[in-house]
Amino acid sequence: MRDTSVLNDPDYSTPGASRGLFDVFRYWHLLSLLVKKGVATRYHGSVLGWIWSYVRPAAQFLMYYLVIGVIMGGHKDTPLYPVYLFAGIVAVNLFSEALRNTTGSVVDNRSLIKKIYLPRELFPVSAIGVALIHFLPQAVLLLIVALLCGLTISWLQILFFVLGVVMILMFALGLGLFFGAVNVAYRDARNFVDLILMFATWASPVLYSWSMVHERAPEWLFHIYMSNPMTGAVELFHEAFWNPLVPKAGHLPTLDVYVSIGFAISLVTLIIGQLVFRKLEGSFAQNL
Q1: 218 near 117, Cβ under 8 Å?
Q2: Which InterPro entries does this chain map to (predicted)?
């Protein structure tokens, strides 16, 4: 006769059964190990190491500032343009690294997936953690620059910053779950992500202000543009670091509406990404 006592044990769970992202909360220790591994291997064998976390955004800033700000005169229409530009670059860099890391997270950990079972969502979430850790030096540098320009920190600015980071990570995780799952069977997913990231800087107010889009684009297109989660996140970064320095520059009156829409889109993206990930994860081992 079959013994069902084990099956009735509340601590028993069927091997391979997963509750998706909710399982991540049960494996904090394993998640921390994956994050430490990702951080340790990021600059393994590199001479400069963590200095690259500063070199890349600095190089981007210099390139965009010289071309857009000086040669094309972008700094004339935007007060304290260097702070405005750098705040946008830092936000987009977080999105770029988070999405790129999550897209390749499953394939990059193929050796673990083939050998043992663990919630597959741990890999994209740990990739988000690695991106967040590498984002912190850039955020600190942005804060120092803003403080040198006269910024006074308030709780509202901290809230804007946190909301911007949360929106970026939620949106990136949703896209990363989707493309990360697809990437296991079709490596074209990474190329598609590269196309998204190529447009990310230009599709949000990083090099220019939202008012330029408002003046030149049809109203319906402007609403779509402002509903982009990255546009809302970049504007939250501007509200945290740039707008307090130039109060006469003007604020977007309906920013709260667009930020709410951006969060809603990010949440829907996260749900869709999780559903697709759950649908495809059963074939990860055989496709890897």
Answers
A1: no
A2: ABC2_TM, ABC2_TM_bact-type, ABC_2_transport
Helix axes 229-241, 219-227, angle to 10 degrees: 70
Give the type of residue at 205. P
What is the residue type of 113?
I
**Cα dihedral across residues 247, 251, 256, 262: positive or negative:** negative
Local structure of residue 176 (DSSP, 8 states): H
Alpha helices for 228-254 (secondary structure H): 229-241
Q: pLDDT tens digits for 77-115? A: 788 888 999 999 999 999 999 999 999 888 888 877 777
Q: Is the dihedral of CA 113, 118, 121, 123 positive or negative?
A: negative
In terms of residues, how long is the chain? 288
- Does residue 259 contact residue 167 with C-beta atoms inside 8 Å? yes
Whether the CB-CB separation of 98 and 172 falls below 8 Å is answered with: yes
Phi, psi of 16 (to 5 degrees): 90, -10
pTM of this prediction exceeds 0.85: yes
The angle formed by the CA atoms of residues 91, 186 and 102, to the nearest 5 degrees, is 25
Element (H, E) at 111: helix 110-115
